[in-house]
Specification:
Peroxisomal Thiolase, Chain A, domain 1; binds oxa(dethia)-CoA; 5-stranded mixed beta sheet; transferase; FabH; alpha/beta; globular
């Protein structure tokens, strides 16, 4: 049997981007003492010079709300115009209810559809894929895709393998209807056989199973850096090229490359493997933002547009990759310059 209705479709694009970085800038010099490291080592191995940490009383949702309000205003919308929120995060400290519904309350729009996704550093690109489909099928009109993390809460400052990498921030986009096709096909998937390469542990259940066992420690991110590095360098470039090709572009016709900001050496290696010409503007927000997982791509997008305003309305290849291991990439048309942009 077939249902009796005529499906309607629309085109979708990113209408706006909004970013929030907590004011506290943390240079490498503040990190190195506890991990027997140096500013020089961190800069050489990762490109990171400094990052932002939220204050103890600044929550994930505080950051997300600030980013969302900027994105909504730049789209020329108000909170009530948002009819779905997709919240990508791995650092919301509750299993339920969702971060997305807490954000709705903070935005003063408690009626929109809202849910979280857990795809770590690929979470934002997973969210863009879903939002694109929601708008294209007219399931929603204006979707807020949020990537926000307070990773300083889940990083051990004494862990030599992670303390210098992870950071805090929130970046978001509003995806809505458009005349032209503004979001290309998503190429996504997983390498789940390597799912223990990045883990946040112990789980909540371990505390229940082992009451009073304080030496279990606080849940923190553990990362096998070299395993993830090799995977990113060898596997991600061909996936990113597939996303480019799926959108009908080539390295020569692409305007910007905004990969997940995990390590500047990974970014440089991707640029080389993909043979991106010098005309492609590459985001290097990692240098002053660190690795903010799901927030890194929208934060980098916002920074790039502030630095290079001529990229408004131009094409950008996004590629997210991380814990799972999971990945997703797509070409997007960057948002046009907002009429009401204050900064
Ligand atoms: O966002 C999710 C996805 N995550 C990623 O993409 C992260 C991917 N991985 C990485 O970015 C890199 O693996 C790290 C930046 C985490 C580490 O860099 P690396 O070049 O892979 O370092 P390594 O673990 O191979 O260690 C190299 C050397 C070792 O010394 P020897 O054996 O060569 O003498 C380590 O002991 O660097 C030493 N080392 C350090 N030295 C100073 C390891 N950690 C540190 C440190 N400070 N923090």
């Amino acid at each position: 049997m077939s249902l009796k209705f005529t499906p309607e479709t629309a085109n979708a694009r990113i209408l706006s981007v909004g970013a929030y970085r907590p004011p506290r800038v943390v240079p490498n010099s503040e990190i190195v003492g506890r991990i027997d490291s140096t500013d020089e080592w961190i800069q050489q191995r990762t490109g990171i010079e400094s990052r932002h940490f939220a204050s103890a009383d600044e929550s994930l949702i505080d950051m997300a709300a600030k980013s969302a309000n900027i994105a909504i205003a730049r789209a020329g919308l108000v909170a009530e115009d948002i009819d779905a929120v997709i919240f990508a995060t791995i650092s919301y400290p509750y299993q339920a209810p969702s971060a997305a519904t807490e954000l709705l309350v903070r935005l003063g729009n408690t009626k929109a559809a809202a849910f979280d996704i857990s795809a770590a550093c690929a979470g934002f690109c997973y969210g863009v894929a879903l939002a694109n489909d929601l708008v294209r099928n007219k399931t929603a009109k204006n979707v807020l895709v949020m990537g926000a993390e307070k990773l300083s809460d889940f990083t051990d400052p004494d862990d030599r393998a992670t303390a210098f990498i992870f950071a805090d921030g929130a970046g978001s986009v509003v995806i809505g209807p458009s005349q032209d096709i503004g979001i290309g096909p998503t190429v996504w998937g997983a390498s789940a056989e390597t799912r223990d390469a990045i883990v946040l542990e112990p789980s909540y259940l371990e505390y229940k199973k082992n009451p009073g066992k304080l030496d279990l420690g606080w849940p923190n991110i553990n990362q096998q850096g070299q395993t993830v590095f090799r995977w990113a360098v060898y596997e991600i470039a061909p996936i990113a090229l597939r996303a480019l090709e799926a959108a009908g572009l080539t390295p020569e016709t692409l305007d910007a490359f905004i990969p997940h900001q995990a390590n500047d050496r990974i970014i440089e290696s991707l640029v080389k493997s993909m043979k991106l010409p010098e005309s492609v503007v590459v985001a290097h927000d990692i240098r002053t933002s660190g690795n903010t997982s799901s927030a890194s791509i929208p934060l980098a997008m916002d920074a790039l547009l502030a630095e290079r305003p001529e990229l408004h309305g131009k094409s950008a290849l996004l590629i997210g990759f991380g814990a799972g291991l999971v990945y997703a990439g797509q070409v997007v048309e960057l948002p046009n310059k907002p009429n009401n942009q204050s900064k």
